[in-house]
Automatic annotation (TrEMBL), chain A:
This is Bifunctional cbb3-type cytochrome c oxidase subunit II/cytochrome c. Gene3D superfamilies: Cytochrome c-like domain. The chain crosses the membrane at residues 12-34. InterPro entries: Cyt_c-like_dom, Cyt_c-like_dom_sf, Cyt_c_oxidase_monohaem-su/FixO, Cytochrome_c550/c551-like. The keyword Protease does not apply. It comes from the Bacteria. SUPFAM superfamilies: Cytochrome c. GO terms for molecular function: electron transfer activity; heme binding; metal ion binding. Residues 50-188, 215-289 form the Cytochrome c domain. Keywords: Electron transport, Heme, Iron, Membrane, Metal-binding, Transmembrane, Transmembrane helix, Transport.
Automatic annotation (TrEMBL), chain B:
It holds the Pfam family COX1. It comes from Geoalkalibacter ferrihydriticus DSM 17813. Keywords: Electron transport, Heme, Iron, Membrane, Metal-binding, Respiratory chain, Transmembrane, Transmembrane helix, Transport. Belongs to the heme-copper respiratory oxidase family. This is Cbb3-type cytochrome c oxidase subunit I. The keyword Transport applies. It comes from the Bacteria. Residues 14-465 form the Cytochrome oxidase subunit I profile domain. GO terms for cellular component: membrane. GO terms for molecular function: cytochrome-c oxidase activity; heme binding. Its main location: membrane. One of its GO terms (biological process) is respiratory electron transport chain. It is found in: Membrane.
Length: 290, 465
């Protein structure tokens, strides 16, 4: 029933190639007409500057994409945790893409501007300082390696990214650590940051509903250690962020700061923890001030 | 009938080298599984998880799997065409180039030279080595087929020939890049396009590298091991064409919920589900070939490896399409479930079939009877146990991880921080590392058995030769 063509290898090879090409053309070649077009363009998304590009290549070299993704899916929990979902237009300058396929660590698509530079420098050098049970390797050695300005200039030219000569000379003396931190701070900044807090219910009370409940204070202490101590110190003495040991704000004020964050100041919003847990942290911080 | 002068030496050499690279792959795998529990085992800059993981996957896919396929293709093509290899010299050159490429790949990956595309990390000079290697291999196999003495083309030859073309197309398109320096290049595609091309490659590499060749091997070695013909030649051919046609539509199921066009995602999902049919065509063909032969599962250790192998293929090709459903993908994608799935394929399906083929070949490449069948059985149980513990623990871990990531309180707040979900993973990571050790023990038994066969096995009598 198959006739004699099935014993002719040349005919077989031609047919097999054809079979492979149908799905290839439809799902791989055709989408070029839909992706990275004018319709995808986003005003604020700009090419990387020389330091950011050098940082991106450090990220690639160290295989960071093996543990961290850079796409936020339009799912409720994901948008709450990481920020607004990813758009095609955000990646038009990315060669290659770094979307990743596994999350051993959190997604980084919108990490830019979330923490101050100092946080990133310390976290890269020793992640367990901030997250005691993190399993991320330490990348302190990036401090001892210099960025190569000539190579970076060549990269900028090949990618046709605009740059100033001063930006290239400014690379002299910059470390790979400077570069990767600059790259981190660039990620996701092409679109306006949406405040997750705004999507959640606003606080209904100005008074800490837990009062002096000792159980709530204990939970507040745990939450403080997990989320705040890295920047504000284990004993509220301050560090990357200001000290919190001296009384200054009333409960409602402190709640607002933790809940909404001070975005321009590098203090992230903790709204996604929910009001109850934010109140417990408020209670703990206030209890340590008296 | 006169037996042609088959080249066995090249088959033996490829088997030895592929086993060596396989050992490298699993040892690195065990090391990185411990790194996930003990971050201090990361030794920057060269021995961090981020650089070792690609080394693990490359050594597994390209060193162990492809190295073994080289051995078995060169073995099968001679017998199925009833003539010696078209060129022994080319095959010899292929062996040297293969090992040279794998060594260069390992060194450059450790040095951080990577394109970062999954399963296609090697930088452009190494890409060129791979392409030359593939051309040399393909020419030799195809020329042997063209000049064959056997009129029919057994289905294994179809699977083999299609994989040669498929890999070539995938690899060339996905590796398109603009070099900056000797070991740095930028992809020819940007952003979402790059992602779509990459996963068209990434998923179909599973088809062309890790499905067609093991099926070719399965279709050849199952009848050889049982002594009974395959159930249906026609079913295998129907399954072949539908598999080769449908697979290429499915790559974008790795990109569900990402900003590539919805219609591409939907097509990928639909074709992934349809793909169950051709995959199970081969599974059913394998099972039906055992009609009246099931007692061999008890008596013939080769059959155990092969039938368990095709069973894992069956499970894999049910699980895969389900993972391609958008709602299921929303839950388990990015979690530990995925390595659980991948390792059922790598350690279960591909490796079990390869072990069977190598045991079958041991008397033929060493001229001696297998040293110990009880040891082969021990090997079977150790790798089966190791793989099952690995996959099952990672499935549970993945579900728990996803559950914690998606848990939302009544006020709309997230129930867990990311690091809380990581801390819950540590016990599972221990189990995984432990299962890797069991698998390594199984492979050690395998190597010991082969080495003792070569040195101490009973010489074959004329009847078995």
């Amino acid at each position: 029933m198959f006739g004699s063509w099935e014993i002719k290898p040349s005919v077989f090879l031609a047919l097999a190639t054809l079979a492979i090409l149908v799905g290839t053309v439809v799902t791989m070649v055709l989408p070029f007409a839909w992706i990275n077009t004018e319709g995808d363009r986003i005003e604020g998304v700009t090419p990387y500057n020389p330091l950011e590009l050098a940082g991106r290549d450090v990220y690639i070299r160290e295989g960071c994409n093996n543990c961290h993704t850079q796409t936020i899916r339009p799912l409720v929990a994901e948008v709450l945790r990481y920020g607004d979902y990813s758009r095609a237009g955000e990646f038009v300058h990315d060669r290659p893409h770094l979307w990743g396929s596994r999350r051993t660590g959190p997604d980084l698509a919108r990490i830019g501007g979330k923490y101050p530079d100092a946080w990133h420098y310390q976290h890269m050098a020793d992640p367990t300082v901030f997250v005691p049970r993190s399993n991320m390797p330490a990348y302190a050695f990036l401090n001892n390696r210099q960025v190569d300005p000539d190579l970076t200039r060549r990269k900028m030219e090949i990618l046709r990214f605009p740059y100033e000569v001063e930006q290239i000379s400014a690379l002299r003396g910059k470390t790979e650590m400077d570069a990767i931190v600059a790259y981190m701070q660039k990620l996701g900044t092409g679109v306006e940051r949406t405040e997750v807090a705004a999507t959640l219910a606003s606080p209904t009370t100005d008074k800490n509903p837990f009062g002096d409940d000792p159980q709530a204070l204990k939970e507040g202490a745990d939450l403080y250690r997990q989320h705040c101590a890295a920047c504000h110190g284990a004993d509220l003495q301050g560090g990357i962020g200001p000290e919190l040991a001296t009384p200054g704000r009333d409960d409602a004020d402190l709640f607002q700061v933790i809940f909404h964050g001070i975005i321009e100041g590098g203090m992230p919003s903790y709204a996604t923890l929910g009001q109850e847990r934010v109140w417990k942290m408020v209670g703990y911080i206030q209890s340590r001030q008296e | 009938m006169e037996t042609p002068n088959y080249n066995v030496a090249i088959v033996r050499s490829f088997i030895h080298w592929s086993i060596l690279w396989g050992v490298v792959a699993i040892l690195v795998g065990v090391l990185i599984s411990f790194q996930l529990v003990y971050p201090n085992l990361n030794l920057p800059p060269y021995l961090t998880y981020g650089r070792l993981r690609p080394l693990h996957t490359n050594a597994g896919i390209f060193g162990w799997a492809i190295g073994s396929f080289f051995a078995l293709y060169l073995y099968m093509v001679q017998r199925l065409c009833r003539r010696p290899l078209w060129s022994d010299g080319l095959a010899r050159f292929q062996l040297y180039l293969f090992n040279f490429t794998i060594i260069v790949a390992a060194v450059t990956l450790l040095m951080g030279f990577t394109q970062s595309k999954e399963y296609h990390e090697l930088e452009w000079p190494v890409d060129i080595l791979v392409v030359v290697l593939w051309v040399v291999f393909s020419v030799n196999v195809l020329m042997t087929i063209f000049k064959r003495k056997e009129q029919q083309m057994y289905v294994s030859l179809w699977f083999m020939a299609a994989s040669l073309i498929g890999v070539a197309i995938l690899y060339l398109v996905n590796s398109a890049a603009i070099p900056v320096s000797l070991f740095k290049s930028y992809s020819a595609y940007a952003g979402a396009n790059d992602a779509n091309v990459q996963w068209w490659y990434g998923h179909n590499a599973v088809a062309m590298v890790l499905t067609l060749p093991p099926l070719a091997i399965f279709y050849y070695f199952l009848p050889k091991s049982t002594g009974v013909a395959i159930y249906s030649h026609r079913l295998s051919i129907v399954a072949f064409w539908s598999l080769v046609f449908m697979y290429l539509w499915t790559g974008a199921h790795h990109l569900l919920w990402t900003p590539i066009p919805d219609w591409v995602q939907t097509l990928a999902m639909a074709f992934s589900i349809m793909l169950i049919a051709p995959s199970w065509g081969s599974v059913i063909n394998g099972y039906l070939s055992m009609n009246g032969q099931w007692h061999q599962m008890r008596e013939n250790y080769l059959v155990k490896f092969l039938i368990l192998g095709i069973t894992f293929y069956g499970l894999q090709t049910l699980q895969g399409p389900l993972q391609a459903v958008r709602s299921f993908s929303a839950f388990i994608h990015y979690t530990e479930w995925v390595p659980g799935h991948v390792h059922m394929g790598a350690l279960g399906w591909v490796s079990l079939v390869l072990f069977a083929a190598f045991y079958y070949l041991a008397p033929r490449i060493y001229g001696r009877e297998l040293y110990s069948i009880p040891l082969a059985n021990l090997h079977f149980w150790l790798v089966l146990l190791g793989q099952l513990i690995y996959s099952v623990s990672m499935w549970i871990a993945g579900v728990q991880q996803a559950g914690m990531w998606h848990a939302i309180g009544p006020d709309g707040s997230l129930a867990y921080s990311f690091v809380e979900s990581l801390i819950e993973m540590y016990p599972y990571y221990w189990v995984r590392a432990f299962s890797g050790v069991i698998y390594v023990a199984g492979v050690a038994v395998f190597i010991y058995n082969l080495a003792m066969t070569a040195r101490r096995g009973k010489p074959l009598t004329a009847a078995t030769a």
